Automatic annotation (TrEMBL):
Record keyword Nuclease present: no
Domain Mechanosensitive ion channel MscS: start-end pairs: 358-424
Highest taxon above the source species: Bacteria
UniProt GO molecular function: mechanosensitive monoatomic ion channel activity
Alphabetized UniProt keyword annotations: Membrane, Transmembrane, Transmembrane helix
Stated name of the protein: Mechanosensitive ion channel family protein
Keyword Transmembrane (UniProt): yes
Transmembrane segments: 182-202, 233-250, 262-279, 307-330, 336-355
InterPro entries (alphabetical): LSM_dom_sf, MscS_beta-dom_sf, MscS_channel_2nd
Listed PANTHER family: INNER MEMBRANE PROTEIN (PTHR30566:SF25), YNAI-RELATED MECHANOSENSITIVE ION CHANNEL (PTHR30566)
Length: 527
């Protein structure tokens, strides 16, 4: 009984030391000298310091943030870094530490100034609390991971730690490069190569199966659509396999977040990529099916214009939405978005005024595709230049002029100002040839020559509808003669006018008395 009394008294003293945070000896004496820049004055400083150390691979430093006095001093230098490394993997995988809820003062929570909790991790039907404990070292309050938490690190690591710990050589676990151990770098390389190879195989397998199904139909659209999936379909497979592979590597939170964002971004890019290809394949298919059935060139050109503009609209929308989804992953962009929404009235007014011209141009492009004042392939006369509409976008129209020059015209030009569309309506057209002849010219002979020209040299150009020759104007010294002819389209009309003018000039040259002459006359003097 006398021997038990001193032991009971010693136990009470030790228990009282723990309760009041005054240990009988220095903390973790087996770890050696404590680094001078080690900050353990508050729960937040201890947690942040521990996570920074383990993610740099400095496990000996991280061991100073653990309560190891329950271990023999001779084992602390070896066991401490090992426990710190294992606790890192457990926290990275199962517990997202929120620094904002941890106290920045040594007193922590006034209700319980000796402990602070980071959370709890489930283990075999129970819950293991992850807590910090305040002790006093040389009169200074010091926060470390609690003894009960450190004792549970090994069971937690056996449940949530890396699967290859016991099979790979220790060399892969002893060194850290840029915050990752060598086995993690090896696993990351294998994951990237394996995910890329498997994604290629899965893409080919799925496309081959889809192509066989597409061959069962009589239309070519589904075959082209399956072909359009080559490339975009590979990225979702790669993203999924990458996310699955990296989940076993127990990456640090920052790298884990980076991996998740890369996978998410690849899926968005793949969807946008496929939508763009889908639009182009669908446009080509509709043009190929509807154009032969349209029966008229104007209708075919109008349809081609509508499809081109609509595809441009959907492509712009796809780019904008994809870019927004990609940028919304970042906190800075989300904060900017919230700020903009909070001041939506002012922001909308400013943006509307700044982008008024751009928005009106885009709306003009959409209006042009609906109202169809001009279509791809139309022959138009704009600003004194005659040419063929070659391309229509949401902001401008490309005009191919007769001498092969390209004239780029703002799309608002066709809505705000008048222009001539020679292809609008029926393609048949009429044109004039103006000649200056003398008063003595035989108009009937000129009409007969016009008939001869149209019946012989111009028979392939004249459509047989209109042919007239009249005295258009009477001037003081000449007559103005106008020949009116018709052709099936503007191209033939231009050539026909050139031909009639040339032949009529040759006809007049053979009769010089009908050419304009300058006369002078005198009158007798009045007496």
């Amino acid at each position: 009984m006398k021997q038990r009394a001193p032991r009971a008294l010693t136990a009470l003293v030790l228990l009282w030391s723990v309760l009041v945070g005054l240990p009988a000896a220095a903390l973790n004496p087996g770890l050696g000298q404590v680094p001078q820049d080690l900050d353990r004055l508050s729960p937040r400083a201890t947690t942040q310091g521990f996570l920074d150390a383990v993610h740099r691979g400095d496990y000996p430093r991280a061991a100073h943030y653990l309560y190891l006095d329950f271990l023999p001093a001779a084992e602390q230098a070896t066991k401490g870094p090992q426990l710190a490394r294992r606790l890192k993997f457990v926290l990275d995988r199962e517990l997202a530490v929120d620094m904002s809820v941890l106290s920045k003062t040594p007193e922590a929570d006034a209700a319980n100034s000796r402990f602070d909790s980071l959370g709890a991790i489930p283990l075999k039907g129970a819950s293991v609390p992850i807590r910090l404990q305040r002790v006093t070292v040389e009169g200074v309050p010091t926060w470390v991971f609690a003894e009960a938490t450190v004792k549970m690190v090994d069971p937690l690591f056996d449940e949530y730690g890396p699967l290859l710990t016991e099979t790979l050589p220790s060399f892969f676990f002893d060194r850290t490069v840029m915050g990752l151990e060598l086995w993690q770098w090896l696993g990351l390389l294998v994951t990237l190569l394996g995910a890329w190879i498997l994604s290629l195989l899965l893409e080919r397998l799925l496309l081959a199966t889809a192509m066989r199904v597409a061959h069962w139909t009589n239309i070519a659209w589904d075959d082209e659509l399956v072909g359009a999936g080559r490339g975009p379909l590979r990225l979702p497979f790669f993203a999924g396999l990458l996310a699955l592979g990296t989940s076993f590597l127990l990456l640090p939170p920052k790298l884990k977040l980076l991996s998740e964002r890369v996978s998410y971004s690849l899926v968005i890019i793949a969807v946008a990529w496929f939508i763009l290809r889908f639009l182009r394949v669908s446009e080509a298919f509709v043009q190929g099916r509807v154009t032969p059935e349209a029966g008229s060139r104007p209708r075919a050109r109008a349809l081609r214009t509508q499809l081109a503009v609509l595809r441009a609209v959907f492509e712009v929308a796809t780019y904008v939405i994809a870019a927004a989804l990609l940028l919304m992953q970042f906190e800075v962009v989300r904060n900017v978005g919230v700020s903009l929404l909070a001041s939506a009235g002012i922001a909308g007014l400013v943006i509307g005024l700044a982008a008024q011209k751009s928005i009106s141009t885009l709306l003009a492009g959409i209006q042009l595709s609906i109202t169809q004042p001009v279509s791809i392939g139309d022959q138009v006369l704009v600003e004194g230049e005659f040419g063929t509409v070659e391309e229509i976008t949401l902001t401008y129209v490309v005009l191919r002029i007769w001498d092969q020059r390209r004239m780029v015209i703002p799309i608002t030009q066709f809505l705000d100002k008048p222009f001539q569309n020679w292809s609008k309506g029926a393609p048949e057209m009429m044109g004039t040839v103006i000649l200056q002849v003398d008063y003595m010219a035989d108009i009937d002979a000129l009409r007969a020559e016009l008939d001869r020209i149209l019946a012989n040299e111009g028979r392939d150009l004249w459509d047989g509808r209109v042919k007239t020759l009249v005295v258009f104007d009477v001037m003081d010294k000449t007559l103005t003669v106008r020949a009116l002819v018709s052709a099936a389209n503007s191209d033939k009309l231009g050539d026909l006018r050139f031909l009639v003018r040339e032949q009529m000039v040759l006809f007049l040259r053979a009769r010089p008395q009908w050419l304009p002459t300058v006369r002078s006359e005198s009158r007798p003097a009045v007496a």
